[in-house]
Amino acid sequence: MERLLWASTQALGCGGGKRGKGDDDDGLLVDPMGTVGQLGEWLCRAALQPPPPPRVCGSPGGPPVTARRVRLRDGRHLAYEESGVPREAARYRIVFSHGFSGSRLDSLRASQEVAEELGVYMVAFDRAGYGESDPNPARSVRSAALDMEELADALGLGDKFYAVGVSLGCHAVWGALRHIPHRLAGAAMLAPVVNYWWPGLPAEASAAAYARQARGDQWALRVSHHAPGLLHWWMRQGWLPTSTVVDNTTHLPNRRDAETRAALAADGTLRRKRDAATQQGIHESYYRDMTVMFGRWEFDPMALPEPTCPVHLWQGDEDGLVPVVLQRHVAGSLPWVNYHELPGTGHFLSAVPGLGDTVLRTLFG
């Protein structure tokens, strides 16, 4: 399996030769003249078949535009949804980055009463390629942060705003801490996904956590990291396992998580959310998310300098999607992160009663 993926990496670069120990994090050998090379050539041919073009909202044959949107400097549009108090009356302004398979309709689920008491305005947006936001073929951790900044400027949120993210959408918050720290009044991350290839993670703990995933998830993440050009094809082939996260079949050890997912599947919510998120193309939404999150970052979050704003991180100790042992290491490596570990809690923090209000009171109370 590992040799196959290394062959695909070599094939995408149209290169040959051997990889020895120390050339990358796996230390695996590839012999392009043998069977592995033939498989690599076959995978290269598959990679040369590009994903279908996106069905851009508002274009001929594309989905209609129903949301409020802003136009960015590069011509793309971001769709957004506001909640809380009116922005002109707000004391605090949040830009919210949704998670994998989410949308602008997701939020902290804080009560209107607490939002009004504290004077909190929040704007959530469809990240690039999701929902009704235009795709971005150059999407990256940096571009996700800059999209938040441009949205804040377009809506007149002031010199500084709060960046809040959930799950995989927290890569935008990490990106903001790296690329636009001067624009942040504060930041919060809820169950942020980790990249197993971050240099600051302990190698043994990271490898052990990675190995505990379902086989299909291991394959999907390794393709996302080593051979992102193959991911669309990989996720469509049927003879090897693929991502249980995409299929919503991941084992969830926390009972509330399992019950929440079962209820959302039973009433059709999961299907409706998927259809809305991927209406411009699953490659532009889900698959680009995977290659950005698990690709090669231009910085290591654990090497970030201390920002001038407060940063909070919430994590459940029974999270079946983000290993708590790695999250503890991330928080422990950054003494300026205020770490809140929730006992008996899984990944779906939005389902925890009252947590949205707790987050707002922690940030602004």
TrEMBL record:
Residue runs in coiled coils: none
UniProt xrefs under InterPro entries: AB_hydrolase_1, AB_hydrolase_fold
Occurrences of domain AB hydrolase-1 (ranges): 93-349
A Pfam family that the UniProt record links to this protein: Abhydrolase_1
Organism field: Sorghum bicolor (Sorghum)
Protein name: AB hydrolase-1 domain-containing protein
